[in-house]
Design a protein that fits this description.
heterodimer, A: 307 residues, alpha+beta, 21% helix, globular, B: 902 residues, eight-stranded mixed sheet, 30 helices, 24 strands, 43% helix
Amino acid sequence: MICNYPIKILKANPVRYRVTHTTSYEYTGKVGRTYNEARLLPRECQHQNLISAHLDITPKETDLRVREDFFGNKIAYFAITEPHSTFTITAISEVEVHGNLPQLDLSRSVAWEEVKNILENDKRAEVLDARQYTLDSPYIKTSPELAAYAQPSFLPGRPLFEAANDLMQRIFHDFTFDPEFTTLSTPVQTVLEHKRGVCQDFAHIAIACIRSYGLAARYVSGYIETLPPPGQEKLVGSDASHAWFSVYLPDVGWMDFDPTNNQIPGDQHIIVAWGRGYGDVTPLKGVVFGGQEHELKVSVDVARLGP
Amino acid sequence: MLHRDLIVTTKTGLVLRYNNGANKVRAIPLRYLSSRPLPGFVPSEFAQFHPTKVKLRTMNTQTTQTSAPGSYLLGEGDYDEMLDSQGQARPHWSVLMQEMEKLGSAEVELRRNEALKLLHENGVTYNVYGDKGSSNRPWQLDPIPMMISGEEWSDIEAGLLQRAELMNMILADLYGPRELTKKNLLPHELIYNHGGFLRACDQVKLSGHHQLLLYAADLARGPDQKMWVVSNRTQAPSGAGYALENRVAVSRVMPNIFRHSKTRRLANFFKSMHAGLIEIAPPHAESPRIVLLTPGPFNETYFEHAYLAAFLGYPLVQGDDLTVRDGYVWLKSLTGLKRVDVIIRRVDDTYCDPLELLADSRLGVAGLLEVARRGNVAIANPLGSGVLENPGIQPFLPAIAKHFLGETLKLQSAATWWCGQPKERDHVLANLDKLVIKPIYRAHGTTSILGHLLSREQLAELRERIRANPAFYVGQEHVSFSTAPCVTPQGFEPRKVMLRCFAAAGRNGYEIMPGGLSSSAPEKGDMLISGREGSISKDTWVMAAGPEIKYETARNIGAIEGGGNEHALPSRAADNIYWVGRYAERAEGSIRLLRATVKKLYTNPNNDDPDYQESLHALLRGVTNLTGTRPGFLDDDDAALLQSPESELISVALDEQRSGSIANLLRNVVRTGYSVRDLWSSDIWRVMDDMDDHLAQPQQLGTNPLWQLQELLDQQITTLSAFSGLSMENMTRGEAWLFLDIGRRLERAMLTISLLRSIMSVYHRDGVETQLIESLLDISDNTICYRQHYRSYFEISAFLELLLLDYNNPRSLAFQIDRLTEHVAKLPNAGKGQRLSAEQRLMLEASSKLDLVDLTDLLVISKDGIRENLDQHLSRLNYLLNALSEAITAKFFRHDSGPKPL
């Protein structure tokens, strides 16, 4: 019943990227101290080797510590004690990405009902670990409405990956990309009603749909390489951080789907972190003393170094 | 129709009789039982108990008026703690029962009131959130203790020791290897779905064996007549301090009974707890500094936080008293940052760190969890321990006990079914009307539900809620509880009772408090769900095998020697206490002026005399000036107000909403004082509490308002004088006193200046001036002194000499500057040798200015009738005092703006 074929064949020539992700805050007043947590350093995983990564922080941080969080993501804690009115953090990482195979046959995965059954009853460590991604989490609550939306994708007996792929395609077609409509705290229910949002919302919608069927889905944050329109030169800093979702198939592992671009991530997606939802992988969190109003600027640059 | 008189003895000895409808008695707010009603005042709430207005409620049983235990009627099928089914006293109750019989129920009732008065005067409260009028609910205590035999206690104790150990191991596992979920000894969803399971706390460990330092369990007698565990408290268990305070009160109102009983003492428990806290301190801390972290005065159990902090000798701190620097936690004290090694927290874990947990919490310390993660601070209980309060864990405990300890559970849990499992859910849904339904995570708006109290519609609705989210609920067997005697105005009554027990990790394992906090239902037949809401607490007497003779009071329990906590007054506390001093003095000064004004208006009004008119108007303007209640009498367009000033004066006295009014200032004294509750002695607190009582009474002035106002102001002066007297005589001359007195002196100096400038800077003709001097001497309580030193004729230069320059007059400006000069030399930053601090320099200038005063020069009157020299002189002094206040504020008090999420 479990298929054993390798889900990906490593390409002979992995693609190498340098990602520069700069976040800066300009305050109208002086900030005395800040305490921060950054999840900006990419994790290593099956598809991805980390060559180097470091943080540049201005003003100079104190007490920097990098550790792994509950989900195995890299998390950097630091404080800034110098009074300042501008704060800038730049993460510069070089990674090697091995893409998924293009000739992947989604129909050869196990039926979703069977996966649900395994998730409920199998006691192996790997399955138990995946089980936490079947539950509701902050930002992501399952509901009958979400289950109903997902129903055409979860036809009886349908192989899991095929169902997930179908769901991804439907979200891509049904939803409009609209950066103005949602904020970080817009509930999935509202996104579903208006069918508008950004990558984070689409990932949340998909995850909630999949969990409504008792299956395990997680949120992946990272970057995507964008190519300029033909004939134009790519602008530095024009990229953005990105998010998509991943689905668990026992004995095979996690398979990523990008509903914003309607594609299965290949060698153009760079993973930073994963968790139950956005709340687990917030790129930058902090507590600020002072500062009053602020203006936020983010720029991301994904540069292909080779091959 | 039976009823009896309720006799209330007030503090003034006034005996009030209320021929009221028996069991309404409890509805009389306690503050009326123990405060002095003003003559002629009948608080409106009181009116309903007034003999003529009371509607009598019929009491139809014999339980009224007779003494126990003859009339002690047991509920059917209830197990009673005191009497067995034959109506015979159980052996461990017999001595107590005999003594109670000897006293008779009326006497016991008196002692109940005595105990309540005692607790009230000690300021024991349980705050109720969201209750706007008065947020402090007096603590309710029934003087009849809950008795537990030595034999039964040894079973309970053994059971609790095992439970504490088991909870400790579960906690260590859930934030460590998580074997329990991996081996399916705890269902995955029960933990991973629980709001108390904080992923950020994963792998954070205290050094040593104990992760769970404090544990409390609510016990009730189950159907097998043994004590069962109904719920567990593992976050920040409250109640141990109330238990101690109950013990002190009960042992004082029933000294003989207590002395002759073989009741076990509570003190060792706290000593052991202290030892356990020292044990978990990070290894670098040689003499660990322990602090108690409270959410602040609005928290429901704030009294207990302050009480325990004072008892244990730990600084009581709020989140913003602490700061994280370089990987350690520091206390912002007056003398700089002091490293904190152990935090005993009464703040719920998710509120403790806005960086990693709830971002919008204002109660926590940013970066705290990271410090704990590095092992540089120990938090008891550790962040994340709320996961153990999940009632869904209960049914799995027997298997976990077997797994970890190889033992069976010694104390039963109330049978519990977690609805996350299909079979259990079906059982709960089928028996909904017989069970108690509890959410697995206590969040706002979630409570336990007694199935049998629900209507059919409500049951159906609850069933739907469970079906929609079964893993969020448990059903628990409805333990019917035993009953124990409770004193009521009608005699003894059996009431449902439950018991909260406490365990603390000591140096060598857990120690169980031999006693605890019992609570009984507010009415006969009532059920108890929570041990707190509306319930009446009881002391708990555990009988010792041998005699224990030490008489237990707060004093001889002995405060625990807290190591390393000297000279660590949090700067927030210094800030608050400084303002208590200022508000109290401002209130007193305002009252004195107001009283003198009212007196002038009320006694001997001589409206035909222009001198009288003019001096009265000067005083009235002085009232507005001093209290800052503009426009008031300074409104030039409102001549009518000066003609009939009564209503404005009453408003300045009584309108609490009006900034600067007397009521408003007194409210500020109490509010600010309450936020440093741990720093006051019980005597001082009693005075504060009196102020609070007065404020709580509706102030309705009758037909002769000014006369009554004067009475009220007299009373307030007495209360404030008691406060200043006690703080002068009874407070150690430490940092707290220093800041209190600086606040007081500074304010008195500034008020004197304000008054003199307002009234004396402008020259009034001699007749007016004489009258003004008379009033001002009265305000400063200097009339007698003046007459002794000078003559009976009021003359301005002599007057100014007394009020400005006389170093021996405690109300003079010179006296205040003298004290302030002494005080600033004791501030932590005071200059050594030749170098003076900024504060010292300011006071040096102020006192030189006074020393160099030439009175004749001061009194020169310019052409336009102004005493310019006097005004300028006073203005400069005022500037210097203001500068002192600013310098102290900038140097010693926190002035961080609050934290914000990025």
